[in-house]
Write a structure and sequence with these properties.
Blueprint lengths: L9 H4 L1 H19 L22 H17 L4 H16 L7 E3 L5 E3 L10 H4 L11 H14 L5 E5 L2 H4 L9 H5 L4 H8 L10 E2 L2 H8 L16 H9 L16 E8 L12 E7 L1 H4 L2 E4 L8 H7 L2 E5 L7 E6 L3 H4 L9 E6 L8 H11 L6 E8 H5 L2 H10 L3
Parallel strand pairs: 3-4, 3-11, 9-10, 9-11
Antiparallel strand pairs: 1-2, 5-6, 7-8, 8-10
Protein name: AlgX/AlgJ SGNH hydrolase-like domain-containing protein
Length: about 400
């Protein structure tokens, strides 16, 4: 009895398997031919191709390193990742990062300042019971002592951030904690922890900003930083701290609403575009010369681009006086609103100050602190940046001993 032999060849019999392997190979081939060059899209450092092993330990360590590189350079990975992020956001209103959380009433919160810290750590740090860096009040007291020794009399504004101002928009379980006025900064002020030199010069307008927020925008719903017409009131409230009258001043600045402005936290994830309206100043209509970025300061153009987050304004209708602002990233969002009260405003964020040499710092100080009889100095940092040490990192080079 003879057995029937199929006339189907081996290629046809394994066609499905071959097609599946070929299909799965395409992304691998694409990934190998076009390795990822921009490693910032996911807000983390992607794996690099490991070196060829030279001994047994490096050979044993090769497989996981190679696996990580393949995963991060998989062909079409960026497109697939973006599609996944969009789907997750649209179906569940979730973000692909612990750094951003959706609140209530359409508001977005910056939840954490890194991916290696607990969720909501940036929110909780501003609220009652929030963790603080030990020694912060003592540092601020020393800061004022040193500035006074330099002949400067600064005022400091510690800006209440969104969690303690728009706390009603937080998730329901967190809102009561942040509604409390017993924040870390408020506790320091109440206890006199900053010391006699600094204490009278520190302004933390929590109650004032909560009141302003009832009638004007202070924090756009899709932003981490502050912005909006409410900043005009905040700037005005600062003037008595310098002994300056509220009037006379230049005419009110013209407010303009810009539509579909990308969120300042969109760079923390790929594929999701958060956009919304932003209120700001129409400087041209207000008769104010405005400038943002390194080109604004030709006097120290050598390192102005390094500082990057700097701004400058001139208003010929305002009282003839100069305001110098040393700030974190909140500074450039409010600096222009002071142009109604000062003929010249010069703001420098200290985020990149560590990249400057000692000599560059010296020259920067000489320029900013010139003509002291006709200038006011405002130090402005948001509450979490103050309480967690960012302020100290940014400012200590301005008053450290040579």
């Amino acid at each position: 009895m003879m057995t029937s032999v199929s006339s189907t060849g081996p290629l046809r019999r394994h066609a499905a398997k071959i097609a599946l392997v070929a299909l799965l190979s395409i992304p691998a081939i694409v990934g190998g031919m076009h390795a990822v060059h921009d490693r910032r899209g996911e807000n983390r450092v992607l794996a690099s191709l490991p070196d060829r092993p030279t001994d047994w330990p490096s050979a044993l360590a090769l497989p996981p390193k190679l696996d990580a590189w393949i995963n991060d350079n998989f062909g079409f990975r960026a497109a697939l990742l973006q599609a996944h992020n969009r789907l997750r956001y649209r179906l569940f209103h979730e973000f692909p990062s612990i750094q951003v959380e959706a609140g209530r009433h359409g508001r977005i919160f910056l939840s954490a300042h890194g991916t290696n810290v607990p969720r909501f750590s940036a929110v909780k740090a501003a609220c009652a019971g929030g963790e603080t860096k030990p020694g912060t009040p003592e540092y601020i007291g020393r800061l004022f002592h040193d500035f006074h020794a330099m002949g400067l009399r600064p005022q400091m504004m510690i800006v209440p951030s969104a969690p303690v101002v728009v706390y009603d928009d937080l998730p329901a379980w967190l809102a009561p904690v942040c509604a409390s006025a017993a924040t870390p900064v408020a506790g320091w002020l109440a206890s006199g922890a900053f010391g006699p030199e600094a204490q009278p010069s520190i302004y933390y307008p929590l109650q004032e900003m909560r009141e302003i927020n009832q009638r004007e925008v202070l924090f756009p719903k899709h932003w981490f930083h502050w912005s909006g017409a409410g900043l005009a009131d905040v700037a005005r409230l600062t003037l008595p701290r310098f002994g300056r009258p509220l009037e006379p001043a230049a005419p009110p600045l013209t407010v303009v609403t810009l539509q579909d402005i990308p969120s300042d936290i969109s760079g923390l994830f790929a594929g999701i575009q958060l956009k919304g309206p932003i209120q700001g100043v129409d400087f041209a209509a207000s008769g104010v010369d405005s400038c943002y970025g390194g080109r604004c300061f030709p006097e120290f153009k050598e390192y102005a681009e390094t500082l990057y987050d700097i701004s400058r304004f001139h208003n010929p209708k305002a009282p003839k006086r100069r305001l110098v602002m040393l700030t974190d990233s909140f500074g450039s969002k409010v600096s222009g609103w002071y142009a109604r009260y000062y003929s010249d405003v010069e703001q420098v964020a200290t985020n990149n100050i560590g990249q400057l040499s000692t000599d560059q710092i010296r020259r920067l100080k000489e320029y900013l602190f010139r003509d002291r009889e006709n200038m006011d100095l405002l130090i402005l940092y948001h509450d979490v940046g103050t309480s967690t040490g960012t302020m100290q990192v940014g400012l200590e080079r301005f008053h450290e001993k040579p």
